[in-house]
Recover the amino acids of this structure.
């Protein structure tokens, strides 16, 4: 009997222990608490100056993607400057011929990338004011976020017209179906952001911060915003302020604007999107290999684009921006004494983004492997904004419209313009802008501002032998994929 | 509370300690022994391999060669002893056991014709006799698995079980397969069934085993079944309806596949040895242009495109046929496999010890898979009440995977490059090196497929241990406690190195990446099981359990580029000029579950099953972590009703019905949490790290749930020579975990929501017949399954266009999700002939006078109308022949290969069809881009009938063996077999059995440089000692 009792006791103990173990497990609700160890949560971020700077660094990163390929498909290929070669995919041809519609996948890129930029900037503007940190640095960080938000909205309002206006970080799934706000409201935010940014950003950076946006960058963008709004006085005044500041000057050698070595440190540079394939591997620039002719030695060259012949004819002999500047004509001998000829594109090809002093450009070109920057503002742009604004009726400041125009012409190796009268000067300023800024994200916006987008595209379509259909609208279509999911969005008339 | 919670770390020790204590305590329990002799009623000869057991206990044994069996440790009292063996009628006897006595119970079994594969069915946390199963469960036996030389078990399931669709991804050695049980329920969450190997759930999710190396180029992923040696498998049971699956609750909506490995037998020792060697090759090549035809075609394209013809007549004449790039990359590929297993035991201990080695080369150069595995399964009866044991397998595989990343600018798809490569270019240049010279047709250096296949290192090495330790204790008669600690430990190493002469390495001066991860899942399961018959009228079987599971992964990967030498490959990342990045992560998740099941049987005729599971998952929002998944089933064994029995029609007739709810939690670990992502931006000379919102979180995220209704019957007639199992089911999945596009103005593209619903309805039937029983025997197994899938709701919109990323071009995304349609619909334009210039035009379907994206329509669907498998086993004397056919009817394939091989733009090789500018092929012209317009020109009928396996084997007479002085050899069988020995299909590509985007729910049925399935012939033997 004694044995039996022991057995029963042991058995009970064992069952008890098992049940206790089971209960112990069940009682611990934290067993299911996910508690990620390898990602940050917003609750424990936005606490320090380091966090504030990191938050705004992320806005720069998205600004880079918002000016990626799709951006210049829209701003430069969909113009009378550039045509798509047979090597280009169908989207390039659609932009070239202006035969795209709202479902063109490429169109959704700048739309989404711009709003992602805006959301990141909004996150900075929402969270950073509450951080205990040095007030100068805080003002700088907020200024950077405002500049980058304004740049994103400026691209959106020009491409699409009325667009949803979002001023705070989106952190709820409610209320996502936003409507389009009138252009004027969007411009009001852009102007106020840029004014605040210009007042709070430093004039220059040094060390590891070189490459951030400056007060000059904010003013240059503001001048361009006023110009696009045809607010000639404010455009002339803002551009005039930059000119008077003496901070910037034209590079004596035009091609230095595109020198990898001189990025940001040449006197003409105001702000650029920086590419560095070593610091940021896998995300370098691709404009060089996209635009070089198809069998340019030294690595990949896709030959996707050619220059419309009538554009090439605009460059007089001796213009720095012509052969060996904006374009190269076959056969072409480069700095490494390589003579190159090509069949794609058929005729002159882009030279602009080939820096012959860059070993990477000349011998190691590969996908996302170039350091060539994408320029947002340079001093020549400020001068031509000034010239246009003054010629259109803005009050002149430090110089006349002709003087501003001539300074750009003289640097290029051209004589003074030698015309007078508002109309003649207008034509001269417009042609100078065109020669100066091919494939710099300017032409489509210029045509929109001039109101000549349709006429220019008809001329190109006729010249290139495409169906002459002009353009259906002064704006791009809102991406169909966005209309499909947001019932409160409307399409632009004509699309 | 905290102290308690800290204590839980050691809590699993509790049950183990309890068992240890019991082991000592119970040695002197009151038991007796049952022994006896089993013979065949027909011949009177002893019957070996008869399972004799005491129902509702774990007591049992197997008759030896002399038909003798012994069951020790039988509790005193009246007991029922059951004897059963495949091919014989089940028999039972009632005995009264007294303490210390040995009782005799002899059986004489009657032969019945039956082809039922298994008698005992694994139903999850226990087994049940098939005749008593109330749910829909299919089984695949070890014989069926052994009949076919397969590298992983999912391949063995193909065509073997009704309602189980297996779509093998490709012919890459070690490739996984998309397994769908009764259709796909989910859109954004996983559709893979839950795999439970000897009680250990293992992940099938490739994404959870991604090391984040560069190896996105045809990543093989970790196929959980590939770590299991098919020869070790005793049976695979597939739980299909809600009653069967709801015991696995939250992970069961896609069905459950239970793999049981072999255990040793109580008496004697046996050794089995098997080996096979074989060769594989592709079915056929594509009919592509030769060099002369190609050059002529290019000239035509250039001239029509306004350029000048690049090749002169003299050049063309000199080209001849040029390079056949398909011959350059395809080969006849040998395969060899060896396995050796020892098993046996005495009255108290059973063991199964095995090892296997597989070496398979791929039919594309540079691809292979080597796998070695060992297994040890031990069972020990510590006392008559306590049993302990383990199941453990260790495996290691080494595979070289075909780089296959699409035909974009920077990836190196060997297969695509091979079919597109100009035949005018030789494999090697004048210097004898791989030809990667400038190719003026594309404007880029030539991406040489041979260089890519052999030059790129793209390997995955996995070492995996899956196993558990368990103990079972009979507390009182009928009540058993079981506890187990299981684990799945995986280490995976992926290496990618692209040297200077291949893409993408050429762009970077060589590019290399290595990633490693170790993933651990541990699991503790505790169950109480009570089984008792009352008054021989009521039988009650109750199960209750509690399990904890936690999965942890640590991964690290590094990528670098710009190497002085390619010779060190991924072992020399430190000598790179540029360090692209290092990634580390530690994703984890946990699951806490309670479950219960009750089986009640009245008069052995009316069977009721109720089961349910409460699951808590860390993946969901704090308020939605727990969910309850109940089910109920009822079955009526009509054949035991006197009025039906008196008809004499049915040997067996059981009607089943069930209803229940199961769930799906197969999503990312942290989808319910707001998180920040890190970014990099280069300021001048400094690398600036940023943190940004990682998209919108959905704190309300909860389980996706599937409700399923099933009605079925199991019937046997004509002395069980014809056995039928048929089921109709109706499933509705709601609260879909759907990745819903949201307005980009939010800063994100999409968010995971519980939105939408999908229905799957279907019918499946299995027919087992014994056709001949004479000297020539012939058995057949036929299974057929029809599934109809329909999207019921997608949230706010009626359709999602291009929900899956497919293909290479910007417009190449021909899929749609539309309410009222099945998932996996193809979407695009309808061909409307060619215009005067020979350009392809499309139909203006809405009649608005222009052809634009509004004219797209549904072009077909990747889901089949029905699938089937038909196996025939013939026996004549010592010869056995098995012929296994398998088919899929009505599924469409979107052939992207054909799209790019008929675009006729004069820059890549093309199908010979372009020569006549045949149907739907544009006139040759540079700049043609029609391949990027999705259209019905590329949608092909993917139906096929395939001779999946044929095998002829011969059992060598033992007489010959003894004459040859080979003693101790009980059995020697030699065979020859062929896989994919014939294929009947209209599909124009390499092979209709494909699934390029195997892990995508939404992009099924695409051929895009997909590694084709080969056909194979093997010779082998099996020997038993």
């Amino acid at each position: 009997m004694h044995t039996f009792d022991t057995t029963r006791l042991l058995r009970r103990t064992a069952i008890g222990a098992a049940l206790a173990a089971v209960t112990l497990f069940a009682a611990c609700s934290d067993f299911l608490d996910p508690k990620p160890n390898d990602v940050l949560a917003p609750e424990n971020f936005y606490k320090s100056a380091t966090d504030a700077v990191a938050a705004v660094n992320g806005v720069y990163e998205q600004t880079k993607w918002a000016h990626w390929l799709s951006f210049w498909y829209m701003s430069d290929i969909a113009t009378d400057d550039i045509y798509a070669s047979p090597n280009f995919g169908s989207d390039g041809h659609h932009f070239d011929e202006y035969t795209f519609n709202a479902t063109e996948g490429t169109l959704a890129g700048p739309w989404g990338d711009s709003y992602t930029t805006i959301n990141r900037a909004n996150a900075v503007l929402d969270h950073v004011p509450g951080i205990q940190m040095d007030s100068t640095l805080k003002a700088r960080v907020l200024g950077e976020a405002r500049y980058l938000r304004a740049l994103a909205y400026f691209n959106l309002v020009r491409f699409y017209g009325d667009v949803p206006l979002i001023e705070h970080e989106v952190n709820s799934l409610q209320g996502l179906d936003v409507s389009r706000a009138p252009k004027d409201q969007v411009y009001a935010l852009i102007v106020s952001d840029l004014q605040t940014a210009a007042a709070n950003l430093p004039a220059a950076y040094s060390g590891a911060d070189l490459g951030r946006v400056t007060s000059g960058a904010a003013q240059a963008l503001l001048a361009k915003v006023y110009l696009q709004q045809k607010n000639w006085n404010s455009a002339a005044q803002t551009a005039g302020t930059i000119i008077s500041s003496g901070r910037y000057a034209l590079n004596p050698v035009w091609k230095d604007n595109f020198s990898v070595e001189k990025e940001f440190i040449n006197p003409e540079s105001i702000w650029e999107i920086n590419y560095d394939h070593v610091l940021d591997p896998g995300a370098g620039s691709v404009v060089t290999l996209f635009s070089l002719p198809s069998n340019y030695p030294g690595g990949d060259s896709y030959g996707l684009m050619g220059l419309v012949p009538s554009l090439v004819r605009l460059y007089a002999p001796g213009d720095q921006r012509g052969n060996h500047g904006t374009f190269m004509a076959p056969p072409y001998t480069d700095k490494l004494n390589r003579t190159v000829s090509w069949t794609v594109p058929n005729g002159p090809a882009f030279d602009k983004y080939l820096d012959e002093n860059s070993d990477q450009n000349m011998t190691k070109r590969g996908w996302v492997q170039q350091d060539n920057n994408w320029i947002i503002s340079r001093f020549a742009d400020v001068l031509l904004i000034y010239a246009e604004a003054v010629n259109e009726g803005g009050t002149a400041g430090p110089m006349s419209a002709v003087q501003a125009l001539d300074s750009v012409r003289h640097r290029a190796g051209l004589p003074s313009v030698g015309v007078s009268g508002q109309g003649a000067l207008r034509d001269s300023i417009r042609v100078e802008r065109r020669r100066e800024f091919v494939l710099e994200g300017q032409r489509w916006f210029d045509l929109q501002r001039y109101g000549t987008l349709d006429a220019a595209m008809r001329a190109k379509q006729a010249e290139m032998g495409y169906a002459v259909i002009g353009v259906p609208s002064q704006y791009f279509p809102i991406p169909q994929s966005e209309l499909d999911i947001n019932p409160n969005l409307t399409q632009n008339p004509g699309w | 509370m905290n102290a308690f919670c800290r204590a839980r770390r050691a809590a699993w020790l509790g049950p183990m300690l309890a068992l240890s204590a019991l082991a000592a305590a119970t040695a002197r329990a009151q038991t007796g022994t049952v022994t006896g002799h089993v013979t065949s009623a027909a011949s009177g000869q002893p019957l070996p391999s008869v399972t004799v057991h005491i129902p509702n206990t774990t007591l049992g044994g197997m008759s030896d060669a002399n038909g003798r069996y012994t069951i020790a440790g039988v509790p005193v009292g009246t007991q029922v002893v059951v004897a059963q063996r495949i091919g014989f009628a089940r028999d039972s006897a009632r005995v009264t056991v007294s303490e210390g006595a040995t009782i005799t119970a002899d059986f004489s079994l009657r032969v019945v014709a039956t082809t039922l594969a298994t008698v005992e069915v694994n139903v999850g946390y226990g087994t049940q006799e098939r005749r008593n199963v109330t749910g829909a469960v299919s089984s695949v036996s070890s014989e069926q698995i052994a009949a076919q030389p397969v590298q992983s078990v999912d391949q063995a399931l193909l065509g073997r079980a009704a309602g189980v669709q297996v779509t093998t991804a490709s012919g890459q050695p070690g490739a996984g397969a998309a397994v769908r049980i009764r259709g796909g329920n989910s859109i954004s969450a996983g559709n893979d069934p839950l795999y439970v190997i000897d009680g250990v759930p293992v992940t099938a999710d490739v994404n959870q085993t991604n090391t984040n190396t560069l190896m996105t180029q045809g990543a093989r992923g970790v196929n959980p079944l590939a770590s299991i040696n098919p020869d070790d498998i005793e049976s695979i049971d597939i739980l299909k309806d809600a009653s069967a699956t709801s015991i696995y609750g939250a992970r069961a909506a896609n069905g459950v596949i239970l793999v049981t490995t072999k255990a040793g037998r109580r008496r004697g020792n046996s050794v089995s040895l098997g080996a096979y060697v074989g060769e594989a090759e592709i079915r056929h090549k594509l009919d592509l242009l030769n060099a002369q035809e190609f050059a002529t075609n290019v000239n035509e394209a250039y001239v029509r495109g306004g350029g000048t013809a690049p090749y002169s007549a003299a050049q063309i004449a000199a080209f001849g046929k040029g390079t056949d790039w398909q011959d350059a990359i395809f080969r006849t590929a040998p395969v060899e496999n060896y396995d050796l297993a020892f098993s046996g035991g005495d009255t108290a201990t059973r063991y199964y010890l095995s090892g296997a080695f597989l070496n398979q080369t791929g039919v594309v150069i540079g691809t292979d898979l080597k796998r070695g595995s060992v297994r040890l399964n031990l069972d020990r009866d510590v006392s008559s009440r306590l049993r302990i044991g383990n199941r453990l397998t260790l495996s290691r595989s080494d595979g070289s995977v075909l780089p296959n990343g699409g035909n974009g600018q920077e990836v190196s798809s060997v297969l695509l490059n091979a079919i597109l490569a100009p035949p005018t270019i030789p494999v090697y240049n004048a210097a004898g090196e791989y030809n990667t010279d400038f190719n003026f047709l594309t404007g880029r250096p030539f991406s040489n497929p041979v260089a890519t296949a052999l030059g790129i290192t793209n390997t995955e090495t996995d070492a995996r241990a899956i196993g558990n330790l368990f103990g079972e204790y009979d507390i009182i008669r009928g009540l058993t406690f079981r506890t187990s600690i299981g684990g799945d430990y995986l280490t995976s190493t992926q290496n990618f190195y692209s040297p200077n002469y291949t893409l993408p390495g050429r762009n970077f001066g060589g590019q290399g990446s290595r990633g490693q991860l170790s993933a651990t899942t541990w699991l503790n399961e505790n169950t109480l099981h009570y089984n008792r018959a009352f008054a021989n009228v009521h039988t009650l079987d109750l199960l209750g359990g509690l399990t904890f599971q936690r999965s942890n992964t640590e991964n690290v990967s590094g990528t670098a580029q710009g190497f002085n030498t390619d010779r060190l490959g991924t072992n020399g990342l430190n000598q790179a000029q540029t360090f692209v990045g290092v990634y580390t992560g530690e994703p984890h998740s946990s699951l806490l579950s309670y479950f219960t099941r009750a089986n009640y049987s009245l008069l052995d005729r009316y069977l009721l099953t109720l089961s349910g599971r409460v699951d808590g998952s860390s993946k969901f929002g704090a308020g939605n972590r727990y969910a309850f998944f109940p089910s109920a089933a009822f079955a009526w064994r009509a054949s035991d009703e006197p009025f039906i029995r008196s008809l004499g029609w049915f040997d067996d007739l059981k009607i089943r019905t069930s209803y229940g709810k199961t769930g799906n939690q197969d999503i990312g670990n942290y989808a319910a949490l707001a998180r920040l992502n890190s970014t990099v931006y280069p300021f001048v000379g400094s690398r600036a790290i940023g943190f940004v919102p990682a998209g919108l979180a959905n704190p309300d995220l909860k389980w996706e749930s599937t409700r399923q209704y099933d009605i079925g019957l199991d019937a046997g007639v004509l002395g069980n020579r014809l056995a039928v199992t048929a089921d109709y089911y109706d499933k509705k999945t709601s609260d879909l975990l759907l990745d819903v596009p949201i307005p980009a103005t939010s800063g994100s593209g999409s968010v995971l929501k519980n939105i939408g619903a999908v229905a799957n309805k279907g019918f499946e039937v299995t027919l087992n017949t014994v056709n001949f029983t004479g000297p020539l025997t012939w058995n057949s197994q036929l299974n057929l399954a029809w599934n109809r899938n329909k999207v019921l709701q997608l949230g706010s919109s009626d359709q999602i266009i291009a929900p899956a990323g497919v293909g290479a071009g910007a417009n190449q995304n021909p899929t749609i999700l539309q309410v009222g349609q099945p998932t996996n619909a193809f979407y695009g334009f309808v061909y409307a002939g060619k215009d005067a210039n020979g350009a392809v035009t499309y139909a203006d379907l809405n009649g608005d006078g222009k052809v634009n994206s509004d004219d797209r329509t549904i072009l077909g669907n990747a889901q089949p109308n029905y699938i089937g498998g038909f196996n025939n086993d013939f026996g004549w004397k010592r010869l056995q022949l098995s012929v296994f056919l398998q088919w899929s009817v009505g599924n469409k394939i979107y052939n992207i290969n054909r799209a790019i091989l008929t675009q006729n733009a004069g820059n890549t090789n093309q199908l010979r069809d372009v020569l006549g500018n045949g149907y739907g092929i544009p006139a040759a012209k540079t700049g043609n881009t029609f391949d990027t317009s999705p259209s019905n020109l590329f949608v092909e009928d993917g139906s096929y009938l395939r001779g999946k396996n044929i095998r002829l084997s011969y059992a060598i007479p033992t007489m010959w063996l003894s004459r040859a002085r080979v003693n101790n050899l009980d059995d020697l069988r030699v065979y020859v077999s062929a896989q994919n020995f014939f294929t009947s299909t209209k599909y124009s590509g390499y092979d209709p059995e494909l699934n390029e985007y195997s892990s995508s729910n939404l992009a099924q049925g695409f051929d895009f440089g997909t590694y084709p399935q080969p056909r194979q012939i093997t010779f082998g033997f099996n020997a038993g000692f």
Observations:
- Confidence is low (pLDDT under 50) at residues 1-14, 21-28, 215-220, 406-410 of chain B.
- Chain B touches chain A through 119 residues (CB under 8 Å).
- Chain B is about 10% helix and 50% strand.
